[in-house]
Amino acid sequence: MELLDRKMPDWRSKVDMDKLDMMSSAWGLLEQVFGSQQKGLETLGISEEHLIQYGFFPDHLRGGPGLTAAWRQELREKQEQIPAQSPEAKGARGTVTA
Asked: Distance between CA 28 and CA 35 in Å, rounded?
């Protein structure tokens, strides 16, 4: 996640957790965030050899569901850490209201 956070801070907004499937060439994390695995590798500055190291591909083919579940859990935990901003809080930041 740190690599994604550094290279594309808003990456989480591009992920559909319901469709996330780390074994899919359409619904994997890199595919959802960057449009393709190759574009993701280029943007992140890593090679295919690093897919497993960074958690973008399971270390064995039957590990796909577990890896998908792990990413979903991490994404949920991060969402819970970021409190939803109330309209009152937005106004308190200096927004002028009529």
From this structure: 10
